[in-house]
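User: Sorry, folds how?
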Amino acid sequence: MDIPAGVNIKVKANVIEVEGPRGKLSRRKMNAAIRTSLSHMSNLIKDVTKGYRYKMHFVYANFPINAS
């Protein structure tokens, strides 16, 4: 796994901490899911370097939804 410059990764017991230019994130790791932990680390690295945004879509069937 390639780690970009400016990203620090710390692994303590069952917690993975990733710190980058856009913040710090952490996640607990499970021993039975090594591949999943690697995917989580990859996503955490992407989030602290490029950032992320949540999108919400409203879906309705009978009555319109008002959101503010």
